[in-house]
Amino acid sequence: MLLAALVEGLEYGTLQGDLHVDISDIAFDSREVSKGGLFVAITGFTVDGHRYIEKAVELGAAAVLVEKDIHVDADVTVLKLQDTRQALAEVAARFYGRPSEKLNLIGITGTNGKTSTTYFIKSILEQNDRKVGVIGTIGAMVGNEPLRTKSTTPTTPESLHLQRMFADMAEAGVQDCVMEVSSHALSLHRAAATRFKIGVFTNLTPDHLELHKTMEEYFEAKAMLFDLTSDFNIINVDNDFGRQLIDKVKGYDTKLVTYGIEEDADIRATDIRYEADRTTYLAHTPAGSIEITVNLPGSIYVYNSLAAVACAYCSGINLEHAAAGIRAVERIKGRLEVVYHDDERKIIVDFAHTEDSLEKALSTLRPFTQGRLLLVFGVYAAPGAVGSPKREAMGKIAAEHADFSIVTSDNPKDQDPDAIIAEVSAAVAAAGGAYRGIVDRREAIQFAIDMSEKDDVILIAGKGHETTQVIGKTEIPFNEAEIVTEIMAARKSNSSSKKV
Ligand SMILES: CC(=O)N[C@H]1[C@@H](OP(=O)(O)OP(=O)(O)OC[C@H]2O[C@@H](n3ccc(=O)[nH]c3=O)[C@H](O)[C@@H]2O)O[C@H](CO)[C@@H](O)[C@@H]1O[C@H](C)C(=O)N[C@@H](C)C(=O)N[C@H](CCC(=O)O)C(=O)O
Ligand SMILES: Nc1ncnc2c1ncn2[C@@H]1O[C@H](COP(=O)(O)OP(=O)(O)OP(=O)(O)O)[C@@H](O)[C@H]1O
């Protein structure tokens, strides 16, 4: 495709060369440039992509997009734009033929609940024999097969990869794509130049303040999704920021659909019956009412499944199929997942790693816990003062909602795990909670199991579906379901050998 067509209508200055260059590929990483490619230089948080232009040219780049005044000593075209991350999204969408417009694309944003809402929507669409694509924390998939497109980011990929994924999905005959849209992605323009038919807002509670600095800034980042939607904006009316978003988008052409339990909403849940392993409720929609069964406990899964009912309603799917789709989700990996259960104790793994989700996970389990509620958790937050409020808040929540906390490591990465644990433990103690600090997460799990007594419930929070732990720069295998199984098997074989 000609460079002229890729940048037509964008604001740019030509620093050197001309626009009649045929572009064979696009890369934002110099190591991935191929002959005749376009290299987009990004000013990163860690390094400056402009430093790698020479490398990109060596590998055959025919043109470069920059956001700084740069002269390249070679026969290449160099264009300067205001923001190369945004430009990357636009040129990638053009290069792949605006593939998002070929899909019924549903974008889900919010602090918590994106992944589980995605599962429910996918299941509903599949009940309708649709070919569904998914992009999110659980990876990029078509049906249950991983998408072959390479992606380097965990939740919402960089715009170039995203556009390539949409193109691959469209080519594979995918009709609907359900995608988690993180606030990082929105503020770094990864989803720019993407057209969503439906946008969903689950909730907003404190998180990622290392990037967004204030809740208002975080809200504004999430709200960007609703400037990219064409047909429906589906918003949780029970959440304070949800109501703020409703006020913001009321005048938009995109139709507003609200959902909730407490407030008057277009899609509303009533008659909720909570059980230890499932929840039933009546969902009311403008198209009628239906009984919904969710195979997960607690109000959070009423909200997440209700958001999926709202998507079904907006996609013209009948309510019976919506109910069947939600019922078909038997469990979600690492979401209040019972990984061990016997007459003595229940052990649950959950991905709760924010203040709100930890509080919700513990209060969901409390009514169904006859003995003590034991919590194993760590905190991953920004280093130093920026992360202190999260460490303190999570310590306080643990003290208020658990009977005993084993404070351990999450993914300490480059931070000192002892220092994190000391700060979190001090917060548990200050709020009157009983605790023990154990740096090694496996030992912490073992300790919780050893101290548990009849009818206790152990919640291992923070890592959910993840199968590794990042300590320093090293990623070690860490599968909590397997670890629990191993510990319980070792206990059984010890106790049977003692009996002999
Ligand atoms: C904080 C953040 O979002 N970082 C993203 C950012 O990285 P960065 O700015 O540090 O990149 P950098 O290393 O400084 O490099 C700058 C540029 O130089 C280029 N480069 C670098 C080296 C080289 O030899 N040649 C070269 O061209 C890089 O490819 C890049 O284009 O830009 C990179 C390129 O787009 C992203 O891959 C990277 O996401 C990393 C992988 C990441 O972990 N992001 C997380 C925080 C994230 O986005 N998470 C959210 C989910 C959050 C949640 O809800 O839990 C997500 O959507 O995944
Ligand atoms: N609606 C909700 N409100 C509050 N907490 C929730 C909600 N839904 C799920 N959670 C909690 O948040 C955890 C993560 O849920 P989920 O993976 O669905 O969210 P997410 O938005 O995809 O998270 P992330 O962006 O971190 O991957 C769950 O394990 C649960 O503890």
Query: Could you name the ranges where pLDDT drops below 50 across 5 or more consecutive residues?
Result: none
CATH class of the largest domain: Alpha Beta
Main sheet: strand order: 9-8-7-10-6-11-12-13-14-15-16
Ligand kinds: ligand UAG, adenosine-5'-triphosphate
Give the termini distance in whole angstroms. 76 Å
Helix content: 25-40%
Output the radius of gyration.
Answer: 24 Å
Q: What is the makeup of the main sheet?
A: 11 strands, mixed
How would you describe what is shown here?
- Belongs to the MurCDEF family. MurE subfamily.
- Its cofactor is Mg(2+).
- ATP binds at residues 110-116.
- Keywords: ATP-binding, Cell cycle, Cell division, Cell shape, Cell wall biogenesis/degradation, Cytoplasm, Ligase, Magnesium, Nucleotide-binding, Peptidoglycan synthesis.
- This protein is α/β, with parallel strands linked by helices and 500 residues long.
- The chain is 35% helix and 24% strand.
- The chain has three domains: 3-95, Udp-n-acetylmuramoylalanyl-d-glutamate--2,6- Diaminopimelate Ligase, Chain: A, domain 1 (3-Layer(aba) Sandwich), CATH 3.40.1390; 99-327, UDP-N-acetylmuramoyl-L-alanine:D-glutamate ligase; 337-499, Protein-Tyrosine Phosphatase, Chain A.
- The chain has an eleven-stranded mixed sheet with strand order 9-8-7-10-6-11-12-13-14-15-16, with helices on both faces. It has a six-stranded mixed sheet with strand order 17-18-22-19-20-21, sandwiched between helices.
- The mean pLDDT is 94.
- Bound molecules: ligand UAG and adenosine-5'-triphosphate.
- Residues 110, 112-116, 137, 155, 180, 202-203, 300, 303-304, 335, 350-352, 356-357, 360-361, 464 line the site of adenosine-5'-triphosphate.
